[in-house]
Design brief:
Layout (H helix, E strand, L loop, with lengths): L1 E2 L2 E2 L2 H13 L10 H7 L2 H7 L1 E2 L19 E13 L4 E12 L4 E7 L5 E7 L2 E2 L3 E3 L2 E8 L3 E10 L9 E6 L2 E6 L20 E10 L3 E4 L2 E8 L2 E12 L6 E4 L2 E8 L3 E8 L4 H7 L2 H12 L10 E6 L4 E3 L4 E5 L10 H10 L6 E3 L5 H20 L1 H10 L19 H18 L1 H15 L2 E3 L1 H12 L4 H9 L5 E12 L2 E10 L9 E9 L4 E8 L3 E8 L3 E6 L7 E5 L5
Parallel strand pairs: 4-14, 20-21, 21-23, 24-25, 26-32
Antiparallel strand pairs: 1-22, 2-3, 4-5, 5-11, 6-10, 7-8, 7-11, 9-10, 12-13, 13-18, 14-17, 15-18, 16-17, 19-20, 22-23, 26-27, 27-30, 28-29, 28-31
Helix pairs in contact: 5-6, 6-7, 7-8, 7-9, 9-10, 10-11
The chain binds zinc ion (ZN).
Zinc ion (ZN) binds next to helix 6 and helix 7.
Length: about 575
Amino acid sequence: MKVKKIHFSIGTIILFIVILTLGGSYLFWGTRISLYYDLYNTNDIIKGGKAYASMQNTRIDDYTLPAQYNINILKYDISIELIPEEKRINSAVLLTGMLKGEKTGDIVLNFHDGFEISGFTINGSEESYIYQNNFIRFDNYQGADTFLVEIKYSGTPENSGFGSFEFKTFEDMPMIYSMNEPIYASTWFPCNDITNDKALLKIAVTADSNLVTASNGVLTDIIQSGSKKTYTWETNYPISTYLICIATADYTNFKDYYVGIDTLQLDYYVLPGKLEMAKRDFEVNKKALKCFEELFGPYPFYGEKYGIAEFLWNDGAMEHQTITGVSSFLISGNGFFDDFYIHELAHHWWGNAVGPDSWKDIWLNEGFATYSEALYYEYYNGEAALISTMESFAGSFEDTRLYAPEGFLFSETIYDKGAWVLHMLRSEVGDSTFFKILKEYYQTFKYGNASTADFINLSESVSGKSLNKFFKDWVYEGKGIINVDYIVNDYQQGDDYITDIEMLQANSSEIVYNFPLEVRFVYYDGHSEDYSYRINSPVQKISFRSKNIVKEVRLDPRTRLLAQFRDVSSEE
Ligand SMILES: [Zn+2]
C-alpha cells in the first residue's frame, strides 16, 4: 500500500482550514477536502510535517485468538451477490481447512458481527455454532483431517479500516470494492485472517449485468442469468486474506502483455473516461517488470496476470495480489504518479509472494517496496537518481522502531526508514552480496511467509557476516537515526598535512551505531580522494595524512547513511 504524502507548512495548514471552512472545494488532485478531514487527524499533521493515512493498530493484537494459529485454511470458495441499492450482500463461503498438529480442536474464524446467518455446516452437516465478538466458532471439532465449513449469510458489511467494503457510485453507476489491509477481510467474509495462513481462492461475484468484476487470479467464467452476471475468478497461487479483493463497476477493460521468461498478461480495469490516460500511465508497469525481474527474479504470478483496477479509495494504491487497486487521482495520463505503480508492482515480490509472517513484520512489505522505488530509478537513471530518491526518504523517525511498530502500522517510518535500512545493509555487505540476498530471499520464501528473523538469518548466511548488531540497532530496538557532531582540525607535520576529524555520536537513543563511513577529502586544485572508515564508538577520531592541503572534508558524500552530520568546529 502506498498513500500520498502532503507536505504542510503553517501557511498551507491555515489555507487548509480556510478551504475546509468554505467547503465544497477541491484540492488540485481533485480529491474532496472532506475526505482528508475524515482520514487525517491533527496530531499526525503536526507531528511529522507530513500527513499519512492514519489507522490505529491497537486492535491487531487482540484481533486473533490462539486457536486460530492451530488452523490451516487451504482454500476459500466465496460466492457473493452484491445488492448496491440496499448496500447488502448475500454470500456463501466454503472453507477447506485442517487443524495443525492436534486432530481435535476449535475451529475459530474472524467474522464481523451483524450478519444474518442462514446456514452453517461442517463436512456437509448442519451444526450449531457461536457467533459473537466478531468471531464465528465451532468448538471441539473431531472429524476428518480436512474439514469443510460452509457459512451462508447476508447483511451489510461494516465499513472499517481504510474502507474495508464500500458501496459507492461513479457517474450514477454502482462501484463496489473491498480494501482489507490489514485486518478487515472479516468485515465481508469469514476467514482465518492471519497473514501467514495463505490459501487458494475461488471467488464468484454476482451483480447487475452491466457491471464488470475484477478480482485475484484468472477469470474462469462469466455466467449471465436474467439481469445478473456472475464473474468467477480463481487463483492457484497461495494468497493472504488481506490481499483478497473484489472491484465491481462499469469498467472498461483493456489488456496488454509483457514478455519476460514467458508472456505475462496485463489486465486493466478503469472507470469511464479514463482509458486513454490509463494506457499512458500503465506503461510504467512494463519498465518496472523488466527492472524487478532482473534485480529480484521472475515475476511471481506468471500464468495468471498482473492487473490494475481503479477504485474510489481516495488515498493511494493497494497491492491486491495480481489486481492492484489504484485511486482515481493516480490516473493522470502524464506519468506523474509512477512511483505508486512501481511501489505496488514491487509488492508482488515483497508482501505478496514473500508474505509477512505477522503484522510485526510490516517493514518487510513497505520498506522493501519503498526501496524498490529507489532501485527502479537507479536502474534507469543511475546513481544520482538513487541518491536523490533516498534523500527524499530521509527523516528523523523518532516515533517507533521498525519491528512490531508502536502506533500506526503504516507510518512513514515503516516505509522510508525501512527503505533506508536496506540501503545501509547494501553498504554493509556490498552491492553484489546485497542483490544476492534479495534474490535468495525471494527464491526461498516465495508463495510463503517470512519473518524479520528469517530475513536476518538469510542475510547472514549469504553474506557470511554477523548482522546481529545492525538489525538490533536499526530494526528491533533503535528509533531515530545516526547523529554525529564533528570537528575538523588541520595542521602541518614535516612535509605532510594532517586532517583530524573528531566525531561524537549524539544519538537520541542510547545506541552507539557501528557503520562504514566514507569521507571525501577535497584539495585546493579540485581533485578529491574517498576513504572508508569503520565508526564504532561514541567518540572517534580519524587522522588523514596527505601531501597537499585539504580544502574541505565531506562525510558520507554518496548518501549511504541515514545520518545527520553537524560540523561544530565553529562552536568551540
Ligand atoms: Zn506499500
